[in-house]
Amino acid sequence: MKIATLGPKGTYAEQAAIIFANRMNASLDNEDIILTTVNHSLRLVQNREVDYAVIPVENKIDGLIGSSFDALIEYQDFVKVCDEVNLPISHVLAAKAGSDWKKLHTVYSHPSAINQCLNRLEEYFPGIALVPVLSTSEAAQKALLEETAAAICSRKTAIAHQMILFSEEIQDYANNETRFFVCSLTDGPVTQDDRTLLAVRYGMNQPGQLYDTAKFLADAQIDLTFIQSRPYKIRPQEYVLIYEFIGHKSSPSVDVALKNIEMQVRAFNGWKKILGSYPKRKREDEVEFA
Ligand SMILES: O=C(O)C(=O)Cc1ccccc1
């Protein structure tokens, strides 16, 4: 099995990919994990160069990771969400061995990780420069090159680089966790505890469009888990709406709602795309081993 995910080595996404491979009883060698960007991971699935992509989509403190949803919309013709991993997250603030926290000037991390620690960082290090990079492990690599920089990353990654820990559990709220989507060329199987992700573009604007979609779901007794809007990047102040709800796309009640939504959006030259159906999973530290 080959899996593409966010790199370089040492990201939380890599941990999620390994957890998913274990769940599938697949053995992974180092070369079976391709460490790259979120967009490129999905492209590798589309081109059949890997079986799965694992991408971060939602953090308990910082919320939905918009750029990952944009990538799912971009690749939706071929790539579907088929599973998820809910990973407990605990960040450290780490720096090159020998650095002095009193001289700290810059903190690098993934933008979501920075947001998860914003209050603490402002309290402990007022005026510090917060610099976003593509991942927490890239942040660690950057911090190692500077005497006055630190990274927000996992404890494991900091230890692997022999860094010193200025602070552990640096996130603003306890019991932090991030949800990752697993993506492949097909949706997940029906498990009776599934969710579906739907993207809707309404086309011509009409009052009550969001209400009508929500009503089709409500009429079919479908429970919404979130609605998110993303910019429709080719026209200013226009949006793609993303709905996540309980139920597999192949269940009869979801099918009825989706057919109604299809008629609704077609009437105004809009579109609807199913981004995938996938089992709802427990947080990994609550999973019981057989
Ligand atoms: O940068 C990482 O390590 C990622 O996997 C993305 C991310 C960043 C912050 C919290 C969870 C996941």
TrEMBL record:
Protein name: Prephenate dehydratase
Coiled coil: none
GO MF annotations in UniProt: prephenate dehydratase activity
Recorded GO CC terms: cytoplasm
Any one Gene Ontology BP term: L-phenylalanine biosynthetic process
Domain ACT: 198-279
Pathway the protein contributes to: Amino-acid biosynthesis; L-phenylalanine biosynthesis; phenylpyruvate from prephenate: step 1/1
Keywords: Amino-acid biosynthesis, Aromatic amino acid biosynthesis, Lyase, Phenylalanine biosynthesis
Record-marked site positions (Essential for prephenate dehydratase activity): T178
Source organism per UniProt: Hydrogenispora ethanolica
Span of the signal peptide: none
Entry EC no(s): 4.2.1.51
InterPro entries according to UniProt: ACT-like_dom_sf (IPR045865), ACT_dom (IPR002912), Chor_mutase/pphenate_deHydtase (IPR008242), Preph_deHydtase (IPR001086)
First-level EC class: lyase
Prephenate dehydratase domain span: 2-185
Catalysed reactions listed for this entry: prephenate + H(+) = 3-phenylpyruvate + CO2 + H2O
Domain of life: Bacteria
